[in-house]
Amino acid sequence: MSRNLILGTALSSLVLLAALISFVWTPYDHAALNIPDKLQAPDTRHWFGTDHFGRDMFSMIMVGARTSIAVALVAVGIGMALGVPLGLTAAAHKGSWLDEVIMRGNDLVFAFPSLVIAILITAVFGAGALNAIIAIGIFNIPVFARITRGAALTLWEREFILAARVSGKGAARISAEHILPNVANLLIVQGTIQFSLGILAEAGLSYVGLGAQPPTPSWGRMLADAQTMVSFAPHLALIPGLAIIVTVLGLNLLGDGLRDWLDPRIRVARA
Fold it and tell me: Has residue 30 been placed in a domain?
């Protein structure tokens, strides 16, 4: 097992554990205001200090992890649930009008980054975590569609696929029974990468006010609130920034480690 996989699993598990624990316990109520204790530096009472309302930063980071993971996880799930079938369908009908429609539709979505999509959605429905999920999820659909199609195309010319076609199996059945299991490893690795990008996207959307709304803590909004107080309370920006860095780094290392572990060619080369 590679060091990247071990370290990535450890960092990702740490963040996930903090998020899960926050459902049942936090050192303080993350929404409780305590003005007399505002802007305290980290100490034995408040491990990560307090913000400008006296709220415990450690508690807010724990609940913020829950928010970021939930948004990114559901958004990636939407991308995979819709993108993978589209990619399989496009590969199965390579060169047809259906393939062209799917891929040109993907190009159209790629032309609008998740932030632009979020602005369009919130202009109609208002800001919120649900709209952030929809925006990030829509942006993930063409990512998984392209990767699935590219990987599937290399398999459609293989002998075992030709044998399945000769046996009378249709394109949909071949895609489900033979193509999808052989591209699952690639999709798992890409899923971890998109998950880390989803964390960043959620933080970015919350930073500009389009993500989770108060009183729900969000790492991105914590950074936005801290930008005018960095000179005299640097921990307000440093701590949520480090939380984002640790989470994204852990997921990227996890994805890199999974790629090495799941790809037999890389394992053989390193043996």
Answer: no
Short-list 62, 72, 61, CA closest to 240: 61
**Which helix (H) or strand (E) is 66 found in, with range?**
helix 57-92
Report d(CA 182, CA 172) in Å as an integer: 15
Beta bridge partners of 50: 56
pLDDT tens string for the chain (271 positions)?
688 899 999 999 999 999 999 999 999 999 899 999 999 999 999 999 999 999 999 999 999 999 999 999 999 999 999 999 999 999 999 999 999 999 999 999 888 877 788 778 877 888 888 988 998 999 899 999 999 999 999 999 899 998 998 888 899 999 999 999 999 999 999 999 999 999 999 999 999 888 888 888 999 999 999 998 999 999 999 999 999 999 999 999 999 998 888 765 555 445 5
Do 49 and 43 form a contact (C-beta atoms < 8 A)? yes
Any idea what DSSP says for residue 177?
I
Residue 139 belongs to a domain? yes
Domain range holding 265? 3-21+56-270
CATH of the domain at 232: 1.10.3720.10
Of 66, 69, 37, give the one whose Cα is nearest residue 54. Answer: 37
Instruction: Tell me, yes or no, whether 42 lies in a domain.
Output: no
49 located within any domain = no
Number of structural domains the chain divides into: 1
Cis peptide before 215 (omega within 30 of 0): yes
Q: Which residues contact 49 (CB under 8 A, 6 or more apart)?
A: 39, 40, 41, 42, 43, 57, 233, 235, 236, 239
